[in-house]
Here is the input.
Amino acid sequence: MKKTHRNDQAISKRTIYIIGLALLVMFIGFVFYHTKGLTTEGTVKKEALMVEYNLLQQLPGAIRNDLSSYNKTTSALVSAGYRSSKSYNEIRSFYIAEAEKNGWIFISEETVRGGGQDLGGKTIYFRKGDYTLSIQYAGAKADYGWDFAVGLSWHYLK
Here is the structure.
């Protein structure tokens, strides 16, 4: 009888070891799968957006005061704010030509309201594949710390 008891203990330890090993492998697979999803596609798209951003020439005389980038699993964004004394029409004309030169297709233009008020803001949108380019003019009455912003996104805007 003792011999059977030892075999039962041996089987139990072996079973526990196998179950523990299987759980460890499943956990590692789970972490790998989710880490890959969080970093791979969103990061790759964010890096591609940064390349697109760097292909656009900066408006002459404009001073960039910030550049930021962000990504999740299904979205990515690169944006920069600028100071400039140029008018909306000058900014608009420059970026329409610059965007089209780089393969962006004009989509639309809309008025932007700050806090429900018309501060003179406008945004123009472009599309290139599954990316969106937006040029937002803050408006003559706005005081956001920037006069216009350039934003490139994947599954984030429009």
Observations:
- The first strand starts at residue 63 and ends at 71.
- The CA atoms of residues 66 and 80 lie 5 Å apart.
